[in-house]
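USER: My hope is that you can spare some time for a protein that puzzles me. I am handing you a single protein, as its sequence and its fold in token form. Walk me, if you will, through where the backbone shape changes along the chain. The protein I mean follows directly.
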Amino acid sequence: MFRGIYRRVQKHQDDFRDVIQRAVQIGVKKFMITGGNLQDSGDVLHSAQTNDMFFSTVGCHPTRYDDFEKNNPHLYFIELLNLAENKGRVVAIGEYGLDFDRPQFCPKDTQLKYFEKQVELSEQTKPMFLCCQNAHAEFLGIMKRNRDWCVGGVVHSFDGTREAVAALIDLDLPVGFSGCSLKTEVNLEVLKSIPREKLMIETDAPWCGVKSTHIGSKCVKTSFPTKKEWENGHCLKDRNEPCHIIQILEIMSAVRDEDPLELANILCNNTTKVFFPDT
């Protein structure tokens, strides 16, 4: 979408450089570009090799686990592993986990099988970039079975309960908050309950932007010139961008009653510790 392409159709000109520049102007230093399957993972690794600020993940999203069985599952795993072993630009395995909100894209039993298989990939290489949608019990079961082998990570765009987050923290897994994590009063109460050293921040762009219907939107102070139809130099309505991470920070700091700059430094340190330990 940052190349102007929607469902394989070019809708407007490529504005990728503008998107990155807007993020840099509000203080973004690093970009983690996520892979959704083997092809995506190769593509985002290539992108990560074009800019010192860019880093990538390697993995297969739960809605696309059928890719394993459309190919040779063992060979698919080995090819993911080969990509993951890049020492310079690949910083995590993912995005992977369980997404039981959308079983129409991949059956639950297939998701369970290849989630655990990719945990094995993480054991051999990198930290985990995880998702858990409406699958808390099953997700926890797999993580508990493999906890002795995991090398850290984050459960991203978290929107679960206080009980769920407590269980994740017990497994030493931080949680990441995006716009999708800040929709309801319950979400905000969960945010308040999390120790600051177990928090991360993200946009999950181009998805998961803060909407006016989200309860957290009342805390947003920063806005960007935005158009309903694409126009050069403007954000596009309903397309989330990396620059919008400042809005997530504003909500998080207001809800937790913390100084934004102090919280930003803590969130940055938490992320660096997990994904960039050598910097």
